[in-house]
Amino acid sequence: MNKAAEVVVRNAREAGVVRTDVQPGDLLRMAHGIGVATETAPDTLDRIFAIMLDGLRPTD
């Protein structure tokens, strides 16, 4: 999982679609958090995931 997250974050940085301060562990923690948070409320998954993605986009 760590290696996969490293590849995803590196590729996203190179493409300019993720903030430069995002670390692979950040991605894994957020994904875990969303999984736990939506376990009993699966209907909220899409909305919460969209919020997470908006927070990862670069501001410039």
UniProtKB/TrEMBL annotation:
Which SUPFAM superfamilies does the UniProt entry name for this protein?
Tetracyclin repressor-like, C-terminal domain (SSF48498)
Pfam families named in the record: TetR_C_43 (PF21597)
Residue span(s) of domain Transcriptional regulator SbtR-like C-terminal:
1-58
What is the annotated signal peptide range for this record? none
Domain of life, per UniProt, equals: Bacteria
- Give the protein name, as stated in the record: Transcriptional regulator SbtR-like C-terminal domain-containing protein
Supply the source organism for this entry: Fodinicola feengrottensis
